[in-house]
Q: What sequence folds into this?
């Protein structure tokens, strides 16, 4: 028996039905719930979309995918899938699938052999490296990279070419979560697990439309509400969504003021005597850092944070500026609501859980906002307990497993290690069998700075895999113009379909996709999952990691990598695993992953860990320690409560651009739509982007629902249909545009400001105006 909603119940439940209306019908040649038959082979895999990590059973016939169904043995989803999960067979079979390498000759892309294409890539990277040094080459990957893709890229760049210019698009969605974890706990990724969603008495959504973006996890929330009469769902947001429909309390605040809201809650916790003083004394230190830290808008922006010890008394004094009256004026949240929030978090009889995703992370103060949510939980002791914990949700299937754990960011090595630390470089050199001098101690360029450097011409060779940056980058016109300049720039793109990004490529390499290859992802709750190759890729399509290894071999770095095509994935993974063992980041062995539906690290002696830092669950917590944040060695195993103030957004409405503009996703499409727009059922459901407009703003301009309107920012102009009072509802004075549509590029309008600590852009806040067309 499943512990949460069946597909039928899921659709019948109000909020979920609003999110997935018409959605859970099987769209595959076989019914999604069909039993195995003699001519269909079924094996386990993992969904290709969000960071939930739903298990799927894939049905194949003669090397082709014919159906999927939810994997009832997988503890993540126990058989349930969302509309995108059921569409998985369709993502590999678009009519325009790339099946041949292509090289730009005379301004046109023409077909080439793999040897010709790979030789050209190797030659260009080699010549650029020799002429301009390691800072002139770059690799831009993805939270959709499989674990071995990211590991191969990182090793090739760092141990081969001596360059740290390895980045991934998770910089655009999860970097603030990383820096939030690191600055508060000294280690990345959540301490809790999905079971906490089943056990909490209160779930607080911090700017998180969970019903559309993590619908299977949201089904667990709805089932908890059904079983637990006292369970409350609180939605803190700037716009009403299907998640709001299920909420017991909707708290609407003005953009950027979540910083003040969190501080206001902490102010009241202290004033009301709701702080767990014993927990704070045992497990917390107080710190303050720089303020007025800027917005990352300047070219070659540099930032160095600082940390100074503080005290509870200083923290209390700092919070004096966040009295309920002041917070109400700034945020728009009534004093009575602030009081209710503080009383809820401070009620020791309730198990309170917080979740968040892009609304917090894609924020000019994203690191601070992560810190502030932890502050609320640390002050009340609502952490590391079943049902009572903060949990940052993840947007991509392996943003955790590949980007964060393997370390495919410009300053990182595997397992929370960094290139700046000589001890970490020494361990990497030992595992990689290279002289330690080979490893560059200078961090590479973060994603925004990487594309700015490409615009300037400082980076000359750029390889893009498994992502579509010329749709997803903010302030898009700037970076598209940079890619068009030529002038010695060289772009390689590995993908499965033509995209806006492949249009700029000098070389296109067609990639094998999802279960067309052996692979592994790591999900939000630290669960590493493995699957075998289940289908045959189209002739001419090769795995991303194979492509990297082949170019590295042609450049003379073949000694760094395994050579047996049958075992190289296992060998790469087991080598990467050496970084993780013995330091609280231990991932399971490849053999264990093959025989399980994933295991949550740290995995010690074959046993996974549900909750980190907890005695009796985490093997690194010693008897008698209870809770120990052992990775934060700098603060003797204690977590940090930070003094982080409210600071305004980088750009706010004014007389010329009087509206707030935000961007995001819809349930039918995923990221830039490269996969979902090629699934007919999903594309018919939402065929093009739109702009959500408040009815009063529409009335003032005489705009009708569906009418084409013009959205203008300081960076660009976009004509698209208005959606008035639709599934989601913006506040008066606000606009929202989904970014999946390559024909209506939302990011022509957005601002490339970013959190100076995490370097993650703020896609949720810029100013715009609306015009009749």
A:
């Amino acid at each position: 028996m499943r512990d949460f909603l069946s597909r039928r119940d899921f659709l019948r439940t109000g909020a979920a039905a609003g999110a997935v209306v018409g959605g859970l019908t099987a769209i595959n040649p076989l019914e999604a719930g069909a039993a195995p038959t003699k001519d269909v082979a079924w094996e386990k895999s993992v969904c290709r979309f969000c960071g939930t990590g739903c298990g799927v059973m894939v049905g194949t016939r003669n090397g082709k995918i014919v159906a999927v169904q939810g994997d009832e043995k997988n503890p993540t989803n126990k058989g349930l899938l969302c509309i995108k999960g059921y569409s998985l067979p369709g993502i590999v079979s678009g009519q325009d699938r790339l099946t041949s390498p292509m090289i730009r000759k005379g301004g046109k892309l023409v077909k080439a052999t793999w040897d010709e294409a790979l030789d050209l890539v190797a030659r260009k990277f080699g010549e650029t490296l020799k002429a301009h040094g390691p800072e002139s080459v770059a690799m831009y990957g993805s939270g959709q990279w499989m674990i071995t893709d990211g590991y191969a890229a990182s090793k090739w760049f760092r141990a081969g070419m001596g360059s740290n210019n390895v980045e991934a698009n998770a910089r655009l969605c999860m970097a603030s979560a990383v820096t939030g974890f690191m600055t508060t706990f000294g280690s990345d990724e959540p301490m809790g697990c999905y079971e906490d969603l089943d056990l909490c008495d209160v779930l607080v959504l911090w700017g998180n439309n969970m019903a559309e973006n993590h619908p299977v996890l949201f089904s667990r929330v709805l089932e908890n509400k059904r079983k637990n009469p006292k369970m409350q769902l609180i939605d803190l947001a700037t716009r009403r969504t299907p998640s709001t429909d299920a909420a017991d309390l909707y708290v609407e605040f003005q953009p950027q003021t979540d910083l003040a809201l969190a501080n206001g809650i902490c102010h009241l916790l202290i004033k009301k005597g709701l702080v767990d003083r014993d927990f704070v004394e045992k497990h917390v230190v107080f710190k303050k850092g720089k303020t007025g830290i800027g917005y990352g808008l300047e070219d070659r922006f540099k930032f160095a944070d600082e940390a100074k010890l503080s005290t509870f008394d200083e923290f209390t004094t700092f919070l004096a500026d966040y009295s309920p009256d002041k917070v109400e004026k700034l945020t728009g949240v009534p004093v009575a609501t602030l009081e209710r929030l503080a009383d809820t978090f401070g009620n020791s009889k309730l198990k309170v859980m917080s979740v968040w995703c892009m609304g917090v992370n894609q924020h000019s103060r994203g690191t601070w906002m992560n810190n502030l949510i932890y502050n609320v939980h640390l002050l009340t002791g609502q952490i590391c307990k079943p049902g009572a914990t903060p949990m940052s949700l993840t947007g991509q299937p392996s943003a955790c497993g590949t980007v964060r754990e393997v370390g495919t960011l410009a300053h990182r090595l595997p397992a929370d290690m960094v290139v700046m630390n000589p001890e970490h470089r020494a361990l990497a050199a030992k595992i990689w069998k290279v002289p330690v001098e080979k490893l560059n101690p200078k961090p590479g360029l973060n994603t925004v700075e990487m594309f700015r450097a490409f615009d300037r011409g400082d980076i000359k060779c750029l390889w893009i895999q498994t992502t579509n940056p010329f749709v997803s980058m903010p302030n898009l016109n700037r970076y598209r113009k940079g890619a068009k300049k030529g002038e010695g720039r060289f772009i390689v793109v590995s993908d499965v379909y033509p995209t806006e990004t492949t249009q700029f490529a000098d070389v296109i390499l067609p990639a094998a996709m999802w279960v067309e290859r052996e692979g592994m992802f790591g999900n939000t709750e630290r669960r590493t999952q493995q699957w075998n190759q289940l289908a045959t890729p189209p002739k001419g399509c090769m795995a991303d990691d194979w492509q990297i290894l082949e170019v590295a071999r042609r450049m003379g770095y073949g000694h760094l990598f395994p050579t047996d095509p049958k075992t190289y994935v296992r060998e790469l993974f087991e080598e990467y695993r050496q970084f993780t063992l013995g330091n609280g980041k231990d991932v399971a062995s490849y053999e264990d992953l093959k025989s399980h539906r994933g295991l949550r690290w740290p995995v010690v002696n074959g046993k996974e860990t549900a909750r980190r830092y907890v005695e009796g669950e985490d093997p690194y917590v010693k008897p008698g320690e209870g809770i120990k944040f052992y990775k934060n060695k700098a603060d003797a195993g204690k977590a940090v409560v930070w003094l982080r103030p409210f600071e305004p957004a980088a750009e706010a409405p004014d007389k010329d651009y009087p509206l707030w503009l935000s961007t995001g996703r819809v349930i039918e499409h995923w990221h830039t739509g490269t996969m979902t727009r090629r699934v007919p059922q999903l594309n018919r459901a939402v065929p093009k982007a739109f702009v959500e407009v408040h009815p009063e703003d529409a009335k003032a301009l005489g705009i009708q629902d569906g009418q084409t309107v013009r959205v203008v920012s300081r960076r660009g102009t976009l004509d698209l249909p208005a959606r008035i009072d639709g599934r989601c509802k913006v506040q008066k004075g606000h606009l929202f545009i989904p970014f999946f549509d390559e024909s209506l590029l939302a990011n022509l309008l957005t601002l490339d400001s970013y959190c100076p600590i995490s370097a993650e852009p703020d896609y949720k806040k810029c100013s715009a105006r609306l015009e009749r067309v």
Q: What stands out?
A: The radius of gyration is 25 Å.
